[in-house]
Amino acid sequence: MPSGERNLIEWLGEAESGEPGIGGKGASLDRLIRLGYRVPPGFCVTTAAFRAGADAAHDIDADVARGLRRLEAVLGNKTVGPPRLAVRSSAIGEDGVTASFAGLHDTELGVAPADVPAAVRRCWASLESAPAMAYRARRGLADDDVAMAVVVQALVPADASAVAFTRHPVTGREDQLVITAARGLGDAMVAGEITPDTLVVDKSTRAVVEFVPAEGFGDAILAKPVLDDLVEIALAVERDFGRAVDIEAALVERRWYLLQARPITTGSPAAARP
């Protein structure tokens, strides 16, 4: 069977197989694009490729190369030299309503096009890491029913990165939005390696009601106009998804790009308090 008939790759915003084919993260990004949000362009190496494995290695690599050529054409002269890419896990159930797998599967940033196939295989291998297997066991998820797609996207040169929760992740308050922000790419912030700015925003007034600056900095990382934009984007995603979400976003030349949106799976809603 020709490789294209097996849907070894699918383009974000045009995917036909949904979460079973492009995993939780891929499906979320595909949905965001269709809803009109700004998302870095890219494609998914599908769960069909994962399941085919070594038996279709040549076809997988050929289809990945085809996806990379299209991505380079989309980017055109926006990059100097070959683009740098983000290669990110997108397992079945990842970033879902009942399980997030946050930080348990591989993400690699700054990957050169020639190194993408190896990075994809490292993402696949992270399914078998001890933390991922322990998380599945705690959630009662069978090891023999796992599959992973992999997202390959343009890496945006972020001036700042942010994570926004539309429900307070600690108190459960649904009338507050919590944002953490750091300069540059957000991988160190998401991994907990640096202390970011933390802001608590009142949803109704959009006012910052609490601000804890990043370690070593006094001024806010996000200027008010871009903070206001991020708040509006986060609340719009919450409305479109119909539930509390957390989003990851990158700021480039005062424009936000969404890198992820997933339902909040921790904590419980709490009544709003005056």
Tell me the count of domains.
2
CATH class of the largest domain: Alpha Beta
Write down how many β-strands occur, each being a DSSP E stretch of 2 or more residues: 11
Major β-sheet strand ordering: 9-8-7-6-10-11
Count of discrete alpha- or pi-helical segments spanning 4 or more residues: 7
Distance from first to last alpha carbon: 63 Å
Average residue pLDDT: 87
The CATH superfamily of the largest domain bears the name: ATP-grasp fold, A domain
CATH fold title of the largest domain: Dna Ligase, domain 1
Note down, in words, how this protein is organized.
- The radius of gyration is 19 Å and the shape is globular.
- The N and C termini lie far apart (63 Å).
- It is of the alpha+beta class and 274 residues long.
- Strand 8 and strand 9 form a beta hairpin.
- The chain has two domains: 152 residues, Dna Ligase, domain 1 (2-Layer Sandwich); 104 residues, ATP-grasp fold, B domain (D-amino Acid Aminotransferase, Chain A, domain 1, 2-Layer Sandwich).
- It has seven helices and eleven strands.
